[in-house]
Amino acid sequence: MKKLLSVSLFSLALSVSAQSYCVPDFPSGCSYGDQIDSFSIPGVGFSHADTGCSSGSYGDYTAQTINLNAGVSYPFTVTHGFSTQNVKMWIDLNDDGTFDETTELVAEGSSATVGTVISTNGSITIPAAAPVGVHRMRVADRYSSQPIPCNANGYGEAHDYTVNIGAAPSCLSPSNLSISAITGNTATLSWTAPSSTVGVGYEYYISSSNTAPLNTATASGSVPSSVVSTSLSNLSPITNYYVWVRSVCSSTEKSGWSASATFKTICATVVPNFTFDFSSGINECWSEADSGTPATSPSGTYSSWYENGFLNNGYTGAMKVNIYTSSFFPTPFDAWLITPTFNLSAGGYRVTFDYGLTEGFDTAAGNLGSDDLVQFVVSQDGGMTWTVLKTWDTNNSPSNNTNQYSFNLANYNSANTKFAFYATNGTVADASDVDFFVDNFVVEQNVLSTSETGAAKNTVKVYPNPFSEVLNISNAADVKNVLVTDVSGRLLKTLANPGSTLQLGDLKQGIYLIILEMKDGSRQTVKTIKK
Ligand SMILES: [Ca+2]
Ligand SMILES: [Ca+2]
Ligand SMILES: [Ca+2]
Ligand SMILES: [Ca+2]
How many angstroms does the Cα of residue 309 sit away from the middle of ligand 3? Predict the structure, then answer.
C-alpha cells in the first residue's frame, strides 16, 4: 500500500512538472498598449475580446480551449493599443513543457494600423502531422522586437490557451504560397499541392485587404489540379495585395483557405493623361538622385528635393529644393526629381507644371546665384540620356508667383519617356539662398493645338453664346465626344455621346473652349462664354 502511494505521488509529480511552463516576462509591461487586447480565430468561432493588459504582462487562459484541426490554416486577428507590435504563437506539440522556438511556431505576424485600429492579421497553421489531442498554446506580443516563448525583455504581453487538435480533414489546403514576376498590373502566384488528393483543382482569392475570405466566399479564379500556379492580372500599380488558395478535392468538398501571401505591385508605365498635385509629396513611381548632370545622367537614390508648401505657403502639397552654398560646407550639389515613366507613343501630348522661386524659407522674391541653375529635362530612353527643355538661372530667375510652364511634346513620342527637374548650386559660393518650387505636374493630350487644325470644318452649331446653364448643339448625332477646356487648353470635362443639350451649370463664369470630336474623325472648336 505504501509503495503504491509513492508511485502515484511520483506520477503526479511528473505530470505537474510536465505542465510547469516558463512564465514569460515583459519587464517594461503592456500598460501603454503593447498588449494582446482582442484575439480571435473567426473560422472556429473563437473570440477572446477586450482582455486589456494582464497584470505582470501574462494571462494564463488555459481554462479556455480552442478546437483546431491538423493540416489546416486558420486566419487570426490580434488587436493592440499601440503600433509596431510583433505576434508569435507556439503550440507544445510534443507536450514536453517547452515551446520550441522554431519547430513549434504555428503563427507569426506584425501589426498594421488602419484608421484607429491597430491589429495583427495572419494565419495559424497546424501541421498535418500535429499529434491529435490537448496541448498548450502560447500567444506572445512584443513591441518593436520579436517575442520568444520564455520572453525576458521589452514591452509586450503573452496569453496561454489550451488547444484541442483534431484529426486532419480529408481535403487539405495548399501551402507555401509564393509570388513572382510582379509588374505594375500582373503577378504570378504559385503554391505547393497538399498531401490529400485534389480531384478538381484549386481556387484562389485576391484582395487589397488582408481580411481572410470566409469559407463561403466566391473565388476570384480557379485552375485545374494539374497546375500549381496562376497569373494574376488587371492589378493596380503600387498596391498591396493579399492572396489565398484552397483545394477543390471533389465536386462536394473544398479545403479551407490556405495561409495568405502578400505582395505589392510596382509602378506601371503611365499612358497620359496624368495629373500629379504632390498632395502627399511624391510616391515610389517618382525617383530622386543626388549626383550627375543632364549631360552625364543621374545617379543616387535621394536628393535635397522635398515636399513643402508651394512658394513656402504651408509645408505640404508641392516639391521644393533649397539652392544655397554653406560657408561651412561649400560643396556643389546636384538634386534630381525624376517623374514616372510615360508612354507617349500615341502622340499629341504636352507637359505643364507650376513653378516659382522665393528667398530661402521665405515668401519674398529671390534671385538665383551666379552659377546656380534649375533645368527641366526630358529623356526618351528611360533616363539614360537627357535633353534640356528649359533652364532657369541668374538671368531669368522665376518670380515668387505661380508661373505656368507648358511644352508641346509633338516631337516626343517615346514609349519610355521620363521628365526631371535638375537643380545645382554650382561651384561658386554665391551669397544667394533661394527655394525653387514645382507643383501640378501634368502630361495630357494637347487638345488646343489638335483642335485648331480641325477648326475649319464648321458644321455643327453651338448656342446660345454666351450661355448660362445649358449649351445646345445642332446635329448632336454626328458628335462622338464633347471636350470642355479652359482657355489654356486644360481639359475640364469629357462628355461621351452627348445629347443635343449640355448641362454646364457647374462651370464658373469665364471663357471656355468646346471641342466637338465628330464621328467622322474631324474636330471643331468653339469659343464660348459662360455668364
Ligand atoms: Ca491581454
Ligand atoms: Ca515542445
Ligand atoms: Ca499641390
Ligand atoms: Ca553658386
Answer: 8
- Ligand 2 centre from 370 Cα, in Å? 73
CA of 360 to the centre of ligand 3 (A): 19
What's the confidence (pLDDT) of residue 458? 56
Of 91-105, 463-477, 512-526, minimum mean pLDDT range: 512-526
Of the CATH numbers 1.25.40.10, 3.30.360.10, 1.10.3880.10, 2.60.120.260, which one belongs to the domain with range 274-452? 2.60.120.260
Assign domain 2-166 to its CATH superfamily. Answer: Immunoglobulins (2.60.40.10)
State the ligand closest to the CA atom of 393: 4
Ligand nearest to the CA of 429: 4
Domain ranges of the chain: 2-166, 175-264, 274-452, 462-530
Rounded Cα gap, residues 248 and 73, in angstroms = 16
User: Any idea which fold 175-264 has?
Assistant: Immunoglobulin-like (2.60.40)
Give Cβ neighbours of residue 171 (< 8 Å, ≥ 6 apart). 194, 196, 198, 247, 249, 250, 253, 254, 255
Could you list which residues have their CB under 5 Å from ion ligand 1? 35-36, 51, 54
Res. 453: pLDDT tops 50: no
Tell me the C-alpha distance between 168 and 130, whole Å: 9
496 CA from centroid of ligand 3 (Å): 29
Residue 232 carries which side chain, given as an amino acid letter?
Answer: L
- CATH code of domain 462-530: 2.60.40
User: What is the spatial distance between Cα 88 and Cα 33, in angstroms, rounded to a whole number?
Assistant: 17
